Amino acid sequence: MRLDGAAIGLGALVAIAICVPLAVLSQVISDYGNGDAAGIVVLFYFVVLAGLTVGGFVAGSRRPEAPLSHGILAAVLAYAVVQGIGLLVNLARGDDISVVAIVFNAGLAAAMGLLGGWLANWRATGPAHS
User: Fold this and answer.
1) Are the C-beta atoms of 113 and 56 separated by less than 8 Å?
2) In Å, what is the CA distance from 123 to each residue of 33, 84, 91?
3) Handedness of CA 85, 88, 90, 92 (dihedral sign)
């Protein structure tokens, strides 16, 4: 199997386009919500996970012979880019960095990319094609 950088990149860009505005809005709500916005922040977290799934789906759809690996790599690439920027911002602000949270969220991003790749595969070979 050969990896397709264009498919992975497109999936990552789609995920970033969905996730970044939501993550920024969630951060603003969290920073200025005085602790009253926890439910909304959790909702945004799940929507960001859905964005990573969409990115995995896009990458997996472009490479139907290897949708799972392309989906995972697209979501992890998107997460790495966004997390890298967030890490720099947190360091500049003097905020604490949680390596455990970063690793956990990277694994969750991979799982969401896997789900997106699986959905792409299911769409291509699912019940309608049986």
Assistant:
1) yes
2) 40, 32, 42
3) negative
Q: What is the C-alpha to C-alpha distance for residues 92 and 127, in angstroms, rounded to an integer?
A: 51
Q: Which amino acid is at 130?
A: S
Number of H helices, E strands in the chain: 4, 0
CA atoms within 13 A on the CB side of 45: 9
Residue found under tokens 């769409």? 123
Q: How far apart are CA 76 and CA 70, in angstroms?
A: 10
Q: pLDDT means per 10 residues in the chain (130 residues)? A: 93 96 84 72 90 98 95 98 89 91 96 98 76
